[in-house]
Amino acid sequence: MNSVDMVYKSDEGMCIVREVVSDIYSNFTEYEYEGFRIDSEAGETYIMRFGDEQKPPLVMLHGSTSNNAAWFGSLSFFINDFCIYLIDVPGEPGLSEAKRIKLASKIPAAWFLEVLDALKIEKAAFVTMSLGSWFGLNFAVNYPDRVKAMSLITTSGIEPAKVSFILKALFCMMLGKPGQKMLNKAIYYKVPLEMTVEQLRFQEVAAKHFKPLTEAVPIFTDDQLKQINFPLQYFGGDHDVLLNSEATGKRIKEMVPSAEVNILAETGHVILGVFDKIADFLKE
Fold first, then answer.
1. How many Cβ atoms from other residues are within 10 Å of residue 99's Cβ?
2. Which among 15, 169, 183, 261 is least buried, having the fewest CB atoms inside 10 angstroms?
3. C-alpha dist (Å) from residue 143 to 9, 43, 63, 136, 137
4. Which whole-number Å values give the CA distances from 163 to 5, 130, 166, 188, 244, in the listed order?
């Protein structure tokens, strides 16, 4: 792959980040999993499968500048009822293709369709986060009959991102470690930053070597959102510095009247403590 096309600042940087991510994955021993890759239009996609393959499939998509490890703390809520598929989104600092998918194109939906077809998943439940929610919704508005139910933990694509945060993030990125701490404080809001040594190491190397998404996330049209014909659940924080959760929730409710919309008080972009509610929603 040509380095110019990559999302890392150098080939060496990519190797460093991937080594840290591989260590995080291999050191996760709470549940056994099978890790494998699938070829697609967007390149190789790395997937971790947990649980009994005879159980209903649950697909989980992480957010920007993240990877499958974002879900490790929530697996216990779903492992007894679902076969779980964690998918490293190409172009993010995981183990999938190190080339970003152009959002304003047909590739995101085509990529995800290829992945589900390769996994022989005809219909699945979804739990998604931030940019991962955009990928999930983008697939859903194109192939609504492939979605059993979807829970969104914040989502891009309903309302534009806050320009104030984009400017702040760019400024923080120039400050190194102090800037990363400022950014964490803004994103996590009141969620305690209880990170492991591995997680801190990942944040450090990703901030140093990875190039975050700069493409504006496409906004779904009313007609697209009205294609949703499955149970939909949304969680947003009233102090989200990235997205306007209240406006997002309002528009979701207008376009999908049956949707369950939850705006959480004193909550930022990072939302924890809702996985029991999500599990109940998906099982119902």
1. 16
2. 15
3. 35, 21, 21, 10, 10
4. 26, 16, 5, 18, 11
Q: Going by C-beta distance under 8 Å and a sequence separation of 6 or more, which residues neighbour residue 239? A: 189, 190, 266, 267, 268
Tokens for 239, please give them: 């102090």
Domains of the chain, CATH where assigned: 3-283 (3.40.50.1820)
Q: How far apart are CA 187 and CA 88, in angstroms?
A: 21
Neighbouring-strand partners of residue 232:
150
Whole-number pLDDT of residue 207: 86
| Residue 223 neighbours by CB under 8 Å, 6+ apart | none
* Confidence (pTM): 0.92
In angstroms, the CA 30 to CA 164 distance is 39
Measured in whole angstroms, the distance separating CA 142 from the mean position of its chain's CA atoms is 18
The DSSP symbol for 258 reads T
For the chain, percent of residues with pLDDT exceeding 70: 87
| Nearest-angstrom CA–CA distance, 88 and 43 | 12
Sorted by sequence, the CB contacts under 8 Å of residue 279 that are 6+ apart come out as: 77, 78, 81
Q: How far is CA 248 from the centre of its chain?
A: 17
Residue 34 corresponds to which tokens in the numbers above?
A: 């099978």
- Reference 75, options 89, 85, 66, 65; nearest CA is 85
